[in-house]
Design brief:
The protein is an alpha+beta fold. Helices cover about 35% and strands about 15% of the residues.
């Protein structure tokens, strides 16, 4: 097996006041469509405040700290945030995900759509949030705060209790306790989420997280940062709170984000092909070309990023169960990569989801 790809994990800051979940979408919605700057800080300086420095005005700097994404600089990979800003040779601009979030917020700041999109981005692209929600998705999982209220008391003392598992302290940065560090170390490739299909990681099958200045990554400030993420998930409808206890609402999560259900194991008892069908219904519309074809290699990469370990095997199983039909196939070009089931005649395919509707 090849060596895991090393990815520097920057500090998770998100926004200064965890309860102000509109901070990022409001900022993105305020940017002109053609906004471009050499750094995320320069974007903030141009459109928020001229006092964007990491020393004198840390709160303003934290506004843009985690807006960029996975980047390769001088041959080293660094994950800076959710990728709502994208880096190109010309500078930083709002990404497609960032534009979608901004458009939803602009259309209805009081509506449910932008919190849902925001929750989806966090669960797909932020490793520490993914690790926490994966643990909250386990049997009997509940996060218990020190006092009988939402995030009340010391964050360090908040305990995540699960059936048959030792307690862990996910809002603590300590190295001598069971925290999210174990999840991030032991299951780094899964925690990476949709970044697994990023061109920077082409050919990689596993990774490890490190710090930006040392081998060990830091969880400094993880409590307030994960509270900010949980505020989004609460408003988005995925979390349920009762006094000093927080639980994942699995039924609501499946309804609101069906494309994440298989990834987080929310569909206990479903067959793998059943989980696959929900994911396909979500992703196929965005992959189909004008002719209705899907590039098999692109579909494979996206399904892997959504948690389907062996997409070709899962598609074959769905076919054998009569849930999926590959009703057209064609050769592509060398840039289209490996065909479905390794067959070059299936570089381009058309899929029909039986009982759901045409996939093309």
């Amino acid at each position: 097996m090849s060596e895991p790809r090393s990815i520097a994990l920057t500090r998770l800051a998100l926004w200064c006041d965890p309860t102000r979940i509109q901070t990022w979408p409001k900022f993105l919605a305020s940017l002109p469509e053609d906004a471009l700057a050499p750094t995320p800080t320069d974007l903030g300086r141009a459109f928020v405040t001229t006092r964007m420095t990491s020393t004198g005005h840390a709160a303003a700097f934290d506004l843009v700290r985690n807006l960029a994404g996975l980047e390769c600089k001088a041959g080293r990979l660094q994950l800076r945030g959710l990728g709502l800003l994208r880096r190109s040779p010309a500078g930083y601009a709002v990404s497609a995900d960032g534009r979608a979030l901004a458009a939803a917020y602009r259309a209805n700041p009081a509506g449910p759509e932008w919190p849902r999109l925001f929750a989806d981005a966090l669960l797909g692209l932020e490793p520490r949030t993914r690790a926490l929600i994966k643990r909250l998705s386990e049997e009997g999982a509940v996060l218990k705060f020190e006092r009988d209220a939402w995030f009340a008391g010391s964050y360090r003392r908040a305990r995540l209790v699960r059936t048959g598992e030792p307690d862990m302290f996910p809002l603590d940065a300590a190295r001598e306790r069971r925290t999210l560090r174990e999840s991030l170390n032991d299951d780094a490739w899964w925690c990476l989420g949709e970044w697994r299909s990023d061109p920077c990681l082409e050919g990689a099958t596993h990774c490890r997280f490190r710090g930006t200045r040392s081998e060990a990554f830091s969880l400094h400030g993880i409590g307030p940062a994960l509270r900010a993420a949980c505020e989004v998930l609460l408003v988005g409808g995925l979390l349920h709170r009762n006094g000093g206890e927080l639980r994942l609402d699995r039924a609501a999560a499946i309804r609101l984000l069906p494309g994440r259900a298989a990834d987080f194991g929310w569909l206990a008892g479903e067959s793998e092909s059943g989980n696959l069908m929900i994911t396909l219904a979500q992703v196929l519309p965005g992959l189909c070309s004008a002719t209705g074809h899907v590039v098999a290699s692109e579909l494979r990469n996206l399904l892997r990023a959504r948690g389907v370990a062996d997409p070709d095997r899962a598609i074959a199983a769905a076919q054998s169960e009569g849930r999926l039909l590959v009703y057209a196939e064609d050769y592509g070009q060398s840039r289209h990569g490996e065909g479905l089931f390794g067959d070059p005649r299936k570089q381009l395919v058309k899929l029909h989801l039986v009982g759901i509707g045409p996939g093309a």
